[in-house]
Write a structure and sequence with these properties.
The protein is of the alpha+beta class. The chain has two domains: 94 residues; 51 residues. Helix content is 42%, strand content 24%. A four-stranded antiparallel sheet has the order 1-2-3-4, with no helix packed on it. A three-stranded antiparallel sheet has the order 5-6-7. 10% of the residues are buried.
Length: 172
């Protein structure tokens, strides 16, 4: 622990993305498109050519595999010793932060499939700002415990620093 009044260093605790199970159907589509393309290449009915098959396969892979992957990859959450930071967006990045020292409530919701995969949705609300919603968080119980611990440590340090600035002559 740093001495009272000293600035604490911000350390990285965790960085994660939503659960990758969201990409399951993209993986199935990718396998199906490659299988269908391999089967129908040089085996097409009259009037269709191989370049048409390859173009259709390329469009299907782009729309149903590549774009969902980039959308999933563009969303990340970072937990540090001072705050929770959620990043969203591919081109223009949006960022939401929630400070541990201010305190917030942690709500966890888990559906049946999320329970099966060990995931869940965490909602952080401090009562002033808009709630920060983290969807499909992997290992949701571990993240919940970590956030609760960081709130406690952040508030203890903030309280200690606030008390350290006062003239305390009562100490022995």
């Amino acid at each position: 622990m740093p001495p009272p009044g000293a600035q604490t260093e911000e350390l990285l605790i965790a960085r994660f993305r939503s659960h990758a199970r969201r990409l399951f159907w993209s993986a199935v589509v990718l396998i199906a498109v490659f299988g269908a393309t391999a089967y129908f290449y040089d085996n097409l009915p009259a009037g269709l050519e191989n370049w048409m098959l390859l173009a259709a396969a390329g469009v299907a892979v782009l729309l149903l595999v590549v774009i969902p992957f980039f959308v999933w990859y563009s969303r990340s959450t970072t937990v540090t010793t001072r705050r929770v930071i959620a990043h969203h967006g591919i081109g223009a990045r949006r960022r939401q932060e929630m400070s541990h020292a201010r305190g917030y409530t942690i709500g966890v919701r888990r559906g049946p499939l999320q329970r099966l995969w060990g995931a869940g949705t965490i909602t952080l609300s401090n009562g002033v700002d808009a709630p920060l919603r983290l969807s499909n968080v992997p290992n949701v119980t571990l993240v919940h415990e970590t956030l609760a611990d960081q709130i406690e440590v952040g508030q203890i340090l903030a309280h200690r620093d606030a008390q350290g600035g006062a003239d305390n002559t009562d100490r022995f």
